[in-house]
Amino acid sequence: MEQFDFTLIDWSRAQFALTALYHWLFVPLTLGITFIIAIMETIYVKTGNVEWKKITKFWMTLFGINFAIGVATGIILEFEFGTNWSNYSWFVGDIFGAPLAIEGIMAFFMESTFIAIMFFGWNKVSKGFHLTATWLTAIGSNLSALWILVANGWMQNPIGMNFNPDTARMEMNNFWEVLFNPNAINKFLHTIYSSYILAAVFVLGISAWYLLKNREAALAKKSILVAAIFGFIFSVLTIGTGDESAREIAKSQPMKFAAMEGLYYGTDHAPLVAAGILKDDPIPENAKKKDFFFEIEIPSALSYMAFLDGDAFVAGIHDLVHGNEEQGIMSYYEKMERGKIARQALTDFKLAKKDNNEAQISKLTAQFEDEDFLNNYFAYFGYSYFDNPHDIIPSVPFSFYSFHIMVVLGGHFLVLFMVVLFFLYKEKLHQMRWLLWLAVWTMPLAYVASESGWIIAEMGRQPWVIQDLMPTTTAVSNIDINSVIITFALFFITFTALLIAEIKIMLKQIHIGPNEGGH
C-alpha cells in the first residue's frame, strides 16, 4: 500500500465522526417534531379548541431550542468537507456538490423563511396561513434531509456519473439516476421514518413525566395520543424501509451486509442472528463458522432478508476476500489487480498529456469511455490502493452490535407505542406508573438507536469514502495534524457545551410547562 499518514487520517476521521454524531443528536428531533406540531396545529384550526393551540406552542418552543443549536453543528460539518477532505471534494465535487447546493438554495431557504412565520406569526397572519407556514417548515426540514441523504446514498452506491481522466474527477451525467438511486431512496425513507419515531418518543416521554408528576394532564394525554399514533405508524414503516435497505446493502455492499451479521463463511439457507455475542474479530483464514459465545438464530431468515428467497446463498467475509467461483463471487485479490490496471491507465494518461502524445491521449480517452473497461476495471479503481485485502474488511464488532442494537430498540419502540395506545384507550394510562417511567427512560434509547443506525451506515462501509472507488486514505487533506487535533478538542468542548446547554434549557422549559412557556 502507498504510504499514508494514518495518524492524520485517524484524527480527520475522528473529527468528522465527532461533528456528525453531535449533529445527529439534534437533526432527527427537528425532522419529526415539526410534523407532530403541524398535526397538533391542524387539530387546533379544525376544532377551534384553544387547548390545542397551547399544546402546539409548547412543543414549538422545545423545537425552537433544538433547531437553533442543531444549525451550528451542521454548518461546521459542511465546512469540514473542504478543510479536512479536500481530495474527496475535488474528486466528487460535481456530484456531491449539486445535492448540497439544492439543499442550501431550496430546502434551507424554504425552511428558514417559514419558520419565522411559524414562531412570530401568531396573531399577525390568519390561522390558515400560519398553519400553512408550519406545514412548510416541516416539509422544508425534511427536504434538507433528502438532498443530504441523496449525496450520502451516492457515496454508498455511486451511479449516474462518468469519470473524466483529464480532470481526474467524477462528473454527473444523469441527475435523475443520482436522485432516485435505490440506496439513497431507502436511506432517506428509513432515516426520516426513524427520526419520526425519535420525535414521537420525545413527546411521549415528556408527556409521561407530566402524568407522573400529576401536572398538565390535558396536554399530556392529548400529546401522548398524537405521538403514540404517529410513532406506531412510522415504526411499522421503518421496519419496511429497513427491510428494503438490507436488500440494497446485500446487493451493493455485500461486505457491510456480512459484517452486520458476523457472517464469515457464506451459506445457503443462511440464518439470521437475532442476538449474539461475538468471541472476537478474527481474519477470515482463522475464523470459525460459528464465532459466537452464544447466538439466537432464525433459520433461513438472512437469505430471505437479502434476496427474498430462503434458499439463497449469502456471501460471507471469507467468500468476498478469497472469492467463490461456484457462486460467481470475485475475490478481493482479483479486484485489487483490476483496480491497478485502471489506475495505471490513468497514470499513463497523465504522462501522455504531459508529453503531448496525442495518439496515446486519444487511445486512453477511448479506453475510459469503453463500457467493458469501466465495468470490469475502473469499477474497482479504489482497490488499487490496497495490498492486503484484509484491510478492506470493516470492523465486524462495530457493525454487528450497532445493527442489532438498532433493530432490538426499533422493536421496543413499536411495542411501547402499542401498549401505550392500549392503556390510553382503556383510560388507565395514568395508573400504569411503570409504563410511564418506561416511556421516560426510553427517550435516551431513541437517540442510541438513531446514532447506531449511522454507525452501521458509515463504519460498515469502511475503508471506503466512495464505495469501491475512493478509500478514506486518499480522500483526506494534506494538512497539519496539529490543527486537526486542536480543532477536534475545540469542537468536542464546544459541542459538549452546546449539548449541556440544550439539555438544561429543555429541562427548564419542561419544568415551567406550557402555561408560562407556551405563550
What can you tell me about this protein's structure?
- With 519 residues, the chain is mainly alpha-helical.
- The chain has a domain at 23-160 and 180-255 and 394-471: Formate dehydrogenase/DMSO reductase fold (Up-down Bundle).
- The protein is built from 18 helices and 8 strands.
- The protein has a two-stranded antiparallel ribbon with strand order 1-2. It has a two-stranded antiparallel ribbon with strand order 3-6. A two-stranded antiparallel sheet has the order 4-5.
- Helix 1 packs antiparallel against helix 4, helix 2 (50-83) runs antiparallel to helix 3 (86-120) and helix 3 packs antiparallel against helix 4 (127-156).
- The longest helix is centred in the N-terminal third of the chain and has 42 residues, at 6-47.
- The chain starts with 5 loop residues before the first helix and ends with a helix.
Nutshell version of this structure?
The chain has 18 helices and eight strands. With 519 residues, the protein is mainly alpha-helical.
User: Given the helix and strand composition, which structural class is it?
Assistant: mainly alpha
CATH topology descriptor of the domain at 23-160 and 180-255 and 394-471:
Formate dehydrogenase/DMSO reductase fold
Q: What proportion of the residues is helical, as a percent range?
A: over 70%
Per DSSP, the total helix count is 18
First and last CA, distance: 62 Å
CATH class of the domain at 23-160 and 180-255 and 394-471: Mainly Alpha
Question: Outline, from the CA principal axes?
Answer: globular
Tell how many strands the DSSP assignment holds: 8
> What would you say the CATH architecture of the domain at 23-160 and 180-255 and 394-471 is?
Up-down Bundle
Question: Radius of gyration from the CA trace?
Answer: 25 Å
